[in-house]
Amino acid sequence: EIVLTQSPDFQSVTPKEKVTITCRASQSIGSSLHWYQQKPDQSPKLLIKYASQSISGVPSRFSGSGSGTDFTLTINSLEAEDAAAYYCHQSSSLPQTFGQGTKVEIK
Amino acid sequence: QVQLQESGPGLVKPSQTLSLTCTVSGGSISSGGYYWSWIRQHPGKGLEWIGYIYYSGSTYYNPSLKSRVTISVDTSKNQFSLKLSSVTAADTAVYYCASQVVAASGNWFDPWGQGTLVTVSS
User: What CA–CA distance (Å, rounded) separates B97 from A25?
Assistant: First the structure.
């Protein structure tokens, strides 16, 4: 099973600041890495597919990068509505797995 | 636009079988091209993929739950279902259904259902 490790687990950030969340895979997964945002009492929402591909309707301040084992989700100019938990997910091999999540709090 | 909706009992007794159904609207399971998954989230915790089914009935289960999980599909009702046997309090979680396009390199989950909380308690 591929283990995804996110860092940090928690981040408290001021609006307009830049947020960087990393996801490291225990073995190479190419670009088969996807990012989700989950707000309280909501189901996860797809933010980025295949490491860096944008999703229609998702604000452009969200971007992704990386390949192989190291990936990054960047939120440029954080807004209050971005307070949420963020998860990475690998679909390279079965069983599919998720990172443990990163909670972003607005100061 | 495909939408998913989970349904089933919110309370299950220990040692019994948890049964949930996901109803698909806006698209047909039998048209193929999609895997239909179950994912769960323990209270305040991360996401755990349980397994998926294809419209043909082929399945893959997470080895961590494989001995207790059955996922089935009813194309006539455009539904797929989850059964988890011998439940304990550790199976208390929000259960989501989700779909993903079939692809060689795997794919993302989209859309997701709204989720349903199942509590295991006597």
Answer: 25
CB–CB of B49 and A97 under 8 A? yes
Q: Which residue among A34, A96, A98 sits closest to B46, beta carbon to beta carbon?
A: A98
Interface contact flag, A34 B108, Cβ < 8 Å: yes
DSSP state of B112: B
The pLDDT tens digits for B2-55 are 999 999 999 999 999 999 999 999 999 999 899 999 999 999 999 999 999 999
- E-only strand ranges, A4-83: 4-7, 10-13, 19-25, 33-38, 45-49, 53-54, 62-67, 70-75
Strands annotated E in A50-101: 53-54, 62-67, 70-75, 84-90, 97-98
- The backbone torsions φ and ψ at residue B114, rounded to the nearest 5 degrees and listed phi first, read -75, -15
